[in-house]
């Protein structure tokens, strides 16, 4: 007797097995970044003799620009051809990354590896975000994004610590980067064998939603400047990732001024994504109950305060306190931003909206790396941190003034604007 396929349903519980698998896959996505975070700035100075901050941070800028561009492609391709093919292709780009770094005779090889990492992250992380939003439907987007981002950035933190320990025990190459090679191989196996397409879930949600046709040009305009909630999310995402890009390049070098060994620096660096990752388990859920806007605005303001703490500190205790607060502020912002974009975007063009939002958000990596490098070269590392604090303060105020609440439960509240429908 032939077993009929299970009917398509929306919801976290209804799609628990597939959702859990995608959480695991996204943890491996984050691990690909974590293998580099502690080690590469130290590798630049000790093995390649690089001392100019903008040149050292070029690898972060290359990653950020490539990831931003690939996010746009990921959204368009996923809406047109499906989510799973994009996810598989993204993991194929991951295989050469650790090998290029292990064998690199010059820093340009490391930059090339980070270009591939940007493609990998843009295709895989964007697609896992879309697939989880597809599966859960409108009620639990915040929780879904909290679980997704917690897995990804938790893996960044854990892998950063492991990579730092491996570097301390076995040298900066090749041991830390063998982690990335194993992550890529495992993820490719899981994705090709067990992950299922989610376009039927999109069709089910779209069937109960009024049509909202939109061209790529209209969607780009809405997400970039025209639609208040979407464009507010884009600028906040950019500044948020500016802080992450800055931390990637500046923090290891700043902490090294405290005469810490590589393993200790790795722990300090990992505190930020560790709190960020774990905190999202709560903040994503809270955004489904309190709304998106309070967490986004409050989180950006907390990031500004935490960067000020890091800039004022002169010892590991102060730096640890600042990075913990920075992780908490980022945890407040990250799942709420993705959920807000999912709230406003129509299912038919959600992939493209998420892709464009992630273009602007992930350009923050490049802006943070370049700006941090230029300010650090012109003044010092602490001045670069102060610059990020000022930008975070401005971003939080923009959200407080311009953004409206997007959570579906707010639809009946006075003044709720909802989607523009482009």
From TrEMBL:
Q: Which domain of life is it from?
A: Bacteria
Subcellular location, principal: membrane
GO cellular component labels = plasma membrane
The record's subcellular locations are: Cell membrane
**InterPro entries from the entry?**
MFS, MFS_dom, MFS_trans_sf, MFS_Transporters, Sugar_transporter_CS
Which residues span the membrane? 12-33, 53-74, 86-104, 143-163, 175-195, 262-283, 295-313, 319-342, 363-379, 385-404
Give GO MF terms, alphabetically: transmembrane transporter activity
Q: What is this protein called?
A: Predicted arabinose efflux permease, MFS family
């Amino acid at each position: 007797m032939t077993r009929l396929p299970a009917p398509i349903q929306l919801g976290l519980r209804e799609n628990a097995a597939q959702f859990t698998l995608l959480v695991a896959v996204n943890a491996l996505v984050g691990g690909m970044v974590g293998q580099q975070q502690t080690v590469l700035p130290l590798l630049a100075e000790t093995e390649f003799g690089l001392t100019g901050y903008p040149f050292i941070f070029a690898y972060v800028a290359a990653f950020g620009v490539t990831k931003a561009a690939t996010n746009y492609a990921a959204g368009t391709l996923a809406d047109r051809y499906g989510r799973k093919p994009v996810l598989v292709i993204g993991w194929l780009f991951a295989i050469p990354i650790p090998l290029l770094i292990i064998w690199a005779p010059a820093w340009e090889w490391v930059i090339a590896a980070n270009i591939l990492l940007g493609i990998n992250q843009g295709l895989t992380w964007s697609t896992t975000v879309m697939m989880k939003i597809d599966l859960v439907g409108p009620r639990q987007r915040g929780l879904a994004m909290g679980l997704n981002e917690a897995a990804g950035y938790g893996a960044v933190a854990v892998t950063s610590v492991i990579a730092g320990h491996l570097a301390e025990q076995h040298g900066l190459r090749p041991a830390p980067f063998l982690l990335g090679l194993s992550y890529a191989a495992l993820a490719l196996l899981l994705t090709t064998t067990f992950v299922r397409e989610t376009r039927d879930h999109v069709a089910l949600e779209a069937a109960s939603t009024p049509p909202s046709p939109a061209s790529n040009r209209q969607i780009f305009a809405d997400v970039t400047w025209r639609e208040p909630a979407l464009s507010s999310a884009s600028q906040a995402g950019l500044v948020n990732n500016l802080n992450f890009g800055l931390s990637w390049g500046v923090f290891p070098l700043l902490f090294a001024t405290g005469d810490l060994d590589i393993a200790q620096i790795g722990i300090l660096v990992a505190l930020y994504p560790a709190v960020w990752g774990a905190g999202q388990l709560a903040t994503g859920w809270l955004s489904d109950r309190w709304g998106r806007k309070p967490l986004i605005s409050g989180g950006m303001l907390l990031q500004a305060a935490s960067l000020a703490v890091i800039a004022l500190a002169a010892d590991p205790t102060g730096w640890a306190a600042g990075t913990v607060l920075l992780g908490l502020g980022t945890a407040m912002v990250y799942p709420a931003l993705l959920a807000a974009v999912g709230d406003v975007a129509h299912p038919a063009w959600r992939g493209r909206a998420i892709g464009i939002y992630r273009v602007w958000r992930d350009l923050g990596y490049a802006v943070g790396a370049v700006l941090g490098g230029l300010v650090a070269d012109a003044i010092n590392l602490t001045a670069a941190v102060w610059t990020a604090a000022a930008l975070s303060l401005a971003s939080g105020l923009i959200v407080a003034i311009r953004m409206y609440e997007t959570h579906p439960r707010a639809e009946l509240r006075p003044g709720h604007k909802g989607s523009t429908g482009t």
